[in-house]
Amino acid sequence: MLLWLIFFTSGWTLIDGSEVEQDFMWHLRKIPRVVSERTFYLSSPTFEADARMVVNRVCGIECQKELPAPGLSELEDSLSYETVFENGTRTLTRVKVQGLVLEPTQNSTPKEAAVRRKRQVYGTDSRFSILDKRFLTNFPFNTAVKLSTGCSGILISPNHVLTAAHCVHDGKDYVKGSKKLRVGLLKMRKKGGGKKRRVSKRSKREAEASDQREGTKVSLQERPTRRGRRVAEGKPSFQWTRVKNTYIPKGWTRGAGGDAALDYDYALLELKRAHKKKYMELGVSPAIKKMPGGMIHFSGFDNDRADQLVYRFCSVSDESSDLLYQYCDAESGSTGSGIYLRLKEPDKKHWKRKIIAVYSGHQWVDVHGVQKDYNVAVRITPLKYAQICLWIHGNDANCAYG
């Protein structure tokens, strides 16, 4: 009942004991065009980096707000992108940006945050493990996926997963295991699920003897097999799918010529086989004041909860033009999760969830000369929306509004 109230009343605010609907809506806006210009072949990567975030310098909140807006050529360079194919080959595609209207830099004063001593989970752990299959197999929880490199991601089309760039690339090279990257989709196993294999009488006797020596009684039907593991009815498991192509913005893959930029910590994975699950659409990230209660939501596979899907929500503490700073409780493994909002659609009575950011992870940032830690998310700006849309469709024909 608690989860039901959380998810289906997120567009309401309690005032003097009564529920008053707030005017929080998705507002479609014209999106700049990101157009592919030229594509070059690059040498194959070595796939030797460790699967962890490597950001040498994180600009503080006030730094993010006071820096001059990047010029058009700088934006085009950062939005140019690498594509890594399943066979390990790699290309670089240069892009042009058209129809861009530069918005003024946000200059609000950042809020002072209390000193935090514990990384990622702050004080009381407010995360929810989603265990009921009625939630796990239905929207929005069914959109969360697990990467073979240990991160999370979210389904954004029948063939595509959005995640954090550092989950597959450390800023210099692609991480170990990303050459044969796989995506795990949650599914529920039926009773007796798992592949069977014929077992000889001798093997059965040896197994029973082994159990007796260890003082256990395990039936052959419950024993793991080489080809698969039987899972009790109702237990979640993963259906793994290979990744066909990986897209990463050059703003992250600067290599030896510069540092990875946290603003570009996002990547798109194209699956080798389409899935049949309901996915979540992209949306342009609104300002905090346009979010119901300033709240964001996301689900991922935190490493400290053994393949459980973990949901959390919290209010955003501060923002810059490209980042959201917040204290949503999260452990490693949840990075790459899609952060979403539930807003009302214009001229319609129903509400809709859209992804507005990618959870990047825990960072220390400089706030007026003082080091403070936040859990940081990368916002889907109009330009990033246009770029990801280009990756999905191969052209910008379906990316005019978002």
UniProtKB/TrEMBL annotation:
Residues 189-204 have a biased composition (Basic residues). The keyword Protein transport does not apply. Residues 137-201 form the Peptidase S1 domain. Residues 1-17 form the signal peptide. Pfam families: Trypsin (PF00089). SUPFAM superfamilies: Trypsin-like serine proteases. One of its GO terms (cellular component) is extracellular region. Belongs to the peptidase S1 family. This is Inactive serine protease 35. It comes from Ictidomys tridecemlineatus. The lineage of its organism: Eukaryota, Metazoa, Chordata, Craniata, Vertebrata. The gene is PRSS35.
